[in-house]
Amino acid sequence: IRTWRTTALLSGPADKPGRTAKNNVPEDFDIDMQDPETQRAAVAIQSQFRKFQKKKQDVKS
């Protein structure tokens, strides 16, 4: 029997090699998620993605 995480629909079984069961992040993941520069980069990426999605939605209409 395999054990599943609470995010099983997105991630798969908990016994997947190289992943921690706690937060489904690869063990070699070394990006500091609390770094302000990382947070600014994430906001910039999300902003560009939203613009892309809006443009794609407008083209369909």
TrEMBL record:
<dbReference type="GO" id="GO:0005509">
    <property type="term" value="F:calcium ion binding"/>
</dbReference>
<dbReference type="GO" id="GO:0005737">
    <property type="term" value="C:cytoplasm"/>
</dbReference>
<comment type="similarity">
    <text>Belongs to the PCP4 family.</text>
</comment>
<dbReference type="InterPro" id="IPR052142">
    <property type="entry name" value="Calmodulin_Regulator_PCP4-like"/>
</dbReference>
<protein>
    <recommendedName>
        <fullName>Purkinje cell protein 4</fullName>
    </recommendedName>
</protein>
<feature type="region of interest" description="Disordered">
    <location>
        <begin position="1"/>
        <end position="30"/>
    </location>
</feature>
<dbReference type="GO" id="GO:0005516">
    <property type="term" value="F:calmodulin binding"/>
</dbReference>
